[in-house]
TrEMBL record:
PANTHER family according to UniProt: SPERMIDINE/PUTRESCINE IMPORT ATP-BINDING PROTEIN POTA, SPERMIDINE_PUTRESCINE IMPORT ATP-BINDING PROTEIN POTA
Presence of keyword Membrane: yes
Gene3D superfamilies tied to this protein: P-loop containing nucleotide triphosphate hydrolases (3.40.50.300)
Annotated protein name in UniProt: Iron(III) transport system ATP-binding protein
Organism encoding this protein: Polynucleobacter victoriensis
SMART domains documented for this protein: AAA
MF terms in GO: ABC-type ferric iron transporter activity; ATP binding; ATP hydrolysis activity
Length: 358
């Protein structure tokens, strides 16, 4: 069976973007050589800590910031290079910001119709109502943004960005003003809407769960560079660096020594290693143990003391300590409610063992 791979839509080739520094003549390079590609219909996400340059990348893609080196192409058309910055309105790119940026004096339908000024007014308002319905907001067109909840306003903002049918939609921390439950739910719903429309989208966020809920491909950014561009599954189970391992998901590093097999010996036993991540036997390494690699088992002879616990709905995230002093994280179904200081049985069930050289 031949599966058609969609063509590349957005291509960032080694882009550098900066801002003038505080001292006259100085320059702060915020994006330092970033390369990534997004195919038609895919949803990408740039995930990284605050200040790493995520929004600056989006602003460069929109055409709000010039780039100092590299190239940005949309469907093979160069839209940004050191010599060219195609005007934002010529890029067919829609943007959704974190603060919704709705016009307070316009009704919700007028807000959505704002990007449809090429259409006759009546037609634009009709289309706006259609889009409001598509994002799950019926009968709110004649009301004003302040009469809606934060989540509803964010949907209006999405409808406004989607109504002109942009080829590429950029979303800058669009859920950060919403509470955690709504965030993930809305992220999932927006994913469905984007997929139903075949829209290519790039989201930026510092929230990994938001990234997991919406994106096909996730790029982890640090200090203006992309350190891994991958699926959520691979970022979690096959992190390419310690930074990604620590930033994505819960886990700890425990010391180990590689053994023939290939395997790695840690305090809790010997774990098989994939051939690809194996160097020489006898090498001292750090082994990543995820919270879901450590399973609570009342019958296990291996005991660990509960140091802290955090309720997460279906699960507790426990920090536990072995007799050796080594701390581990474990995700335990929340009906196993143990007190801090109590000893509980644990065992290791690690599928994808990842090691890092010391
Ligand atoms: N207009 C500007 N002028 C000067 N410096 C700027 C400007 N915009 C952003 N910066 C600086 O660039 C760096 C990256 O900012 P950017 O907003 O791209 O990061 P971010 O990863 O999106 O952060 P956050 O998640 O906090 O929004 C920061 O140090 C910021 O202070």
């Amino acid at each position: 069976m031949i599966i058609d791979t969609p063509p590349i839509h957005l291509n960032l080739k080694d882009i550098h973007v900066g801002y003038p520094g505080e001292k006259s003549g100085s320059w702060n390079e915020v994006v330092q050589g970033l390369t990534m590609q997004l195919r038609h219909g895919r949803i990408g996400c740039l995930l990284g800590p605050s200040g790493c340059g995520k929004s600056t990348v989006l602003r460069a893609i929109c055409g709000f910031e010039p780039i100092q080196a590299g190239e940005i192409t949309l469907d093979k058309q160069v839209v940004s290079s050191p010599d060219t910055t195609l005007a934002p309105e010529k890029r067919r790119v829609g943007v959704v910001f974190q603060d919704y940026a709705l016009f307070p004096h316009l009704t919700n339908a007028q807000n959505v119709a704002f990007g449809l000024r090429d259409l006759p007014k009546k037609e634009a308002l009709l289309k706006a109502e259609e889009w409001l319905e598509r994002v799950g907001l019926k009968n709110v067109g004649s009301r004003y943004p302040h009469e809606l909840s934060g989540g509803q306003q964010q949907r209006v903002a999405l409808a406004r960005a989607m109504a002109p049918e942009p080829e590429l939609l950029l979303l800058d921390e669009p859920f950060s003003n919403l509470d955690v439950d709504l965030r993930e739910r809305l992220a999932g719903e927006i994913r469905d809407i984007l997929k139903a429309n075949g829209t290519t989208a790039l989201l930026v966020t510092h929230d990994q769960f938001e990234a997991f809920a919406i994106a096909d491909d996730i790029g982890v950014m640090v200090d203006g560079r992309l350190v891994q561009w991958d699926s959520a599954y691979n970022l979690y189970h096959r992190p390419a660096s310690r930074f990604v391992a620590s930033f994505v998901g819960y886990g700890v590093f425990v010391p180990g020594v590689t053994r023939p097999g290939p395997a790695v010996e840690i305090e809790l036993g010997t774990l098989p290693l994939p051939q690809s991540s194996y160097g020489l036997p006898g090498e001292e390494v750090d082994v990543l143990l995820r919270a879901d690699d450590i399973v609570h088992d009342d019958d296990s002879p291996l005991q660990a003391e509960v140091l802290t616990k955090a309720f997460r709905g279906g699960d507790f995230l426990y920090t536990v300590k072995l007799d050796s002093g080594q701390e581990l994280l474990t995700m335990v179904p929340s009906h196993h409610d143990h007190a801090i200081g109590e000893k509980i049985g644990i065992k290791i069930v690690a599928d994808h063992v990842v090691t890092f050289s010391k």
